[in-house]
Fold:
Amino acid sequence: MIDRRGFLNSILAPALAEGATRATSMSPPLASPAMPAWPEDDDPDFWDRIRDQFYIPRTESFFNTGTIGAVPRPVLERVIEDMRTLEATVARWDYSENTPNWISGYSPELPLREKLGKLVNVEGPDIALTQNATFGSSFVAHGLSLKSGDEVILTDREHPGAISAWQERAKLDGIVLKLVPIPTPANDPDKLVDLFGQAITSRTRVLAFPHIISSSAVVLPAKRLTELAHQHGCLSLADGAQALGQIPVDLKDIGCDAYFASPHKWLLAPPGNGMFYIRRDQRDKFQTTLCSFAWDDQSDGMYRFMQYGTGNRSLLTGLDAALDFHFRIGPDRVYKRIRSLADRLRAGLQQIPRAKIGSPVHPELAGATVCHRVDGLPAAKLESELWTKKWVRVRSQGDLVGVRQSCQIYNNEAEIDATLEIVRNLAAHA
Ligand SMILES: Cc1ncc(COP(=O)(O)O)c(C=O)c1O
Structure:
């Protein structure tokens, strides 16, 4: 099957050249709004130029990537162009090999799965494209054969999207959920692994844990937890909603049995995209629970987990563009940058006596997200002060951990320093 861009070029370019034909009068305007120039790699203002790639006004500082990432201009423009093109040329879709598929949900999308696979070091067929992390969590919880009394270990800091399907399973089938208490702040990797170890019994079948905890931003030692699970004959299932695009994720190295993620957070893809991986040698332990025609297709790896019916294919184009954007900067370069911003924030907070960091400062457990609070001040108040005083958008995670500040490539040192200034003032007067 030809790709959509090739198809469009083949039908639209000759028509445009000929002038006002029937085809051109129904053709979409293909020109995107002018894109800001892409900086040279050695541009001293590289990150400032990257900031131009986003729609967020310069007067506003967006630190809530943990909820939803800001979609870069070239990514959103490709989605819009794709949707407009679809609407204009849908009559030409004849379901043949000569025209690209106009919807998602009925085709394997292997090139895109390959591209995403490169980011997490697995092959394309090992990945299913879903809609978000919640899809992955539901697939693993409901797709696995478990019986009453079997134990599943999770943490006491799960996002609802990662625990609810297990809770339903407990209600329906009598499986037992055990929640490992994660300290706040967590700064001892060995202790974390021990806590999971203590929870395992002979009835434990699954260790299901977030790669990065949503509320307290702990980067859990996924490889060590996987080794622990395997030593006890258990499956290791990791929720990468906060990890994909924030920290390096190498699924072969981690060795976990399943992994799911939400590329609309840190990978800056448009919402409506998800990633779901099951290790090849464990795949037949999971049946799919969302079915259309290829529900039992065992020939193409994870395709049977992509049977969700008609979907918006332009969103896949957006994921493709978000991957291009990420690879164009370079995953290592992104990680170094966002980690350095978070390190600057952590270092600044540590200089303020009444500021408390609720996320890890231990280098192995810390990522690009910092949770912090001011002693005696409700987290919701800190959130609103940061917004009203400096237009800094963070998100409160409750008074134990404080506000969550996710540092992304659209943030900069001045925004971190503005945050510190507010915190300093509040700490002085709280
Ligand atoms: C750790 C974690 N897991 C799961 C989810 C659910 O993600 P989604 O709503 O994209 O399915 C989130 C969302 O914030 C999360 O942070």
